[in-house]
Amino acid sequence: MNIIHSPQCAKRHRAKQVPIATLRDMPFGSLNHYMDRDFRTALEWHMDRDGTTIADLSRKTGVSRDIINKLLGRGREVKKKSSTAVENAILIAAYYGKTVEQFINMDEGASVSRLRSLAEMLSSDEAELLEIQARAILQRRGVQVSG
User: Fold this and answer.
1) What is the spatial distance between Cα 73 and Cα 41, in angstroms, rounded to a whole number?
2) In this predicted model, what pLDDT tens digit does every residue of 101-139 receive, in sequence order?
3) What's the CA gap between 1 and 145, in Å, rounded?
4) Quick check: 70 and 81 in contact, CB under 8 A?
5) How far apart are the first and last CA of the chain?
6) Is 85 helix (H, G, I), strand (E, B) or coil?
7) 49: DSSP letter
């Protein structure tokens, strides 16, 4: 049934320009409002807010300048609305200390949330080192740390 349905459905959507709104009836509510926001707008907002240059973003995330320029709509492909691979989105969002969802929503986010998303990207050895450093900072201030 699905093998027959899929080609017929695709032809119908292409021929009649029927929008595919599969996110409307999700059990936890519509996701269509998330789709209204795009990665380009969020990237521009974050870069402007933090004064980030393309060179800095590229160097610190490992995402190429070409991809960042394409996302920003610069260069030859300005007319097309660009998207990015999930891996690049995660790296760029993490650079700003956010999840992809927080990044696209241009969520200011609490510092705890930003720290948590950064900490989740660390290896276990790096996380242990970070914990030791945080404990040392607190002990230096005279704060008793349990554990």
Assistant:
1) 10
2) 888 888 776 555 667 777 888 899 998 999 899 889 888
3) 61
4) no
5) 58
6) coil
7) H
Does the predicted model carry a pTM greater than 0.85? Answer: no
Token output for 5: 């349905």
- Tokens of residue 1, six digits: 């049934």
Which tens digit of pLDDT belongs to each residue from 24-45? 555 545 454 555 468 888 999 9
Please give the Cα distance from 132 to 31 (Å, whole number).
Answer: 40
- Which amino acid is present at 127? A
CA–CA distance, 27 with 23 (Å, rounded to integer)? 10
Q: Distance (Å, rounded) from C-alpha 131 to C-alpha 77?
A: 45
Taking the C-alpha atoms of residue 52 and residue 96, their distance in angstroms, rounded to an integer, is: 10
